[in-house]
Structure formats: structure tokens, C-alpha cells
């Protein structure tokens, strides 16, 4: 059975992110190798991964090399650092689908790069990235930045189980 995974903010090729976010890597190559291994340890070839932005700072050839090494059907929602490149650039490097805008998943989850405005009366959950190690309070937000999840994509079931009480999952 295929699974759906969510992740964001890998920042491949951005060596300063190691210091900015206190990532546990000594250099960019170690970070890249470790994050590819973490991705592939969780994601199967037939699984679907929603990457919620800020994927790579590398050139087209190096980015394509990383994308081809990652398991799964890869769907990218462009982040603020991805927008300098066209949608077709991201498709060319190997993403299966690319969206310039947030999307709705499973009629309940807003997938976006940056957190969206949500108030406590809205019955939805915003699955997002962008804010790295920070976290918004409340059950309306779910941060899938790699810093929160040991640099590994997380399953839809993990998100659902953490934000939707068991009696409501029915």
C-alpha cells in the first residue's frame, strides 16, 4: 500500500543553514547525504511525497542528481527560495508535479510553504514549512520542517493522529 509523506525546507546546498538552524552536520555534503538517506529510509519507491518548499539552492544538474536519488512520486509546492526558478525548471530536475500555490489535501489539510492565516474557529489544519525550528501554537498548524522530524518525511497518518482526536477520525 502506498503512503503519503510530507516534508519541507531541506535547503540542499545551503551551507549556512547548518549554523542558522543548528543542524547536526559538519558540512553541506554530510547534510545532503544524511537527508537523502533519511528520506529513502522512510519513503518507498511507490509512495507520494509532498515537499512544501525550499528544496535546493544548487544548480540544475546537482539538484536533478538529488531528486533522482530520492524515492517516491515527488510533488513540490514552491517555497520562497524556490520561486526564483520557474515551475518548468523544477519539473525538469525531476519533480513529478509542481504548484506555485497552496493546495488542499484530503479536504481538510491546507498544504503551503509559509503558515497561512488560521483562526481557532476554522476546522482545517495548515500543514506548512518555512519557520524551521519554530512552531505555531494550536492544532490548526502543523510544521513539517525537517528540523522537527529528524530530517525525515513524515506520514499523513502521523499528522492526522497528532491533530485529529481519535473519536473524530471515525
TrEMBL record:
SUPFAM superfamilies linked: Metallo-dependent phosphatases (SSF56300)
Highest taxon of source: Bacteria
Classification via Gene3D superfamilies: 3.60.21.10
Name the record gives this protein: Metallophosphoesterase
Provenance organism: Paenibacillus sedimenti
Biological classification of the source: Bacteria, Bacillati, Bacillota, Bacilli, Bacillales
Amino acid at each position: 500500500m502506498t503512503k503519503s509523506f510530507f516534508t519541507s525546507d531541506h535547503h540542499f546546498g545551503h551551507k549556512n543553514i547548518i549554523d542558522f538552524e543548528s543542524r547536526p552536520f559538519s558540512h553541506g555534503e554530510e547534510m545532503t547525504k544524511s537527508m537523502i538517506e533519511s528520506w529513502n529510509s522512510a519513503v518507498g519507491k511507490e509512495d507520494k511525497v509532498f515537499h512544501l518548499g525550499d528544496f535546493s539552492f544548487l544548480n540544475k544538474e546537482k539538484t536533478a542528481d538529488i531528486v533522482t536519488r530520492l524515492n517516491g512520486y515527488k510533488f513540490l509546492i514552491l517555497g520562497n527560495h524556490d520561486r526564483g526558478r520557474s515551475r518548468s525548471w523544477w519539473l525538469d530536475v525531476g519533480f513529478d508535479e509542481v504548484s506555485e500555490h497552496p493546495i488542499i489535501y484530503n479536504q481538510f489539510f491546507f498544504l503551503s510553504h509559509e503558515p497561512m492565516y488560521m483562526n481557532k474557529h476554522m476546522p482545517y489544519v495548515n500543514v506548512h514549512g518555512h519557520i524551521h525550528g519554530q512552531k505555531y501554537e494550536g492544532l490548526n498548524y502543523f510544521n513539517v520542517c525537517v528540523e522537527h522530524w529528524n530530517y525525515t518525511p513524515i506520514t499523513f497518518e502521523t499528522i492526522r493522529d497528532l491533530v485529529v482526536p481519535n473519536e473524530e477520525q471515525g
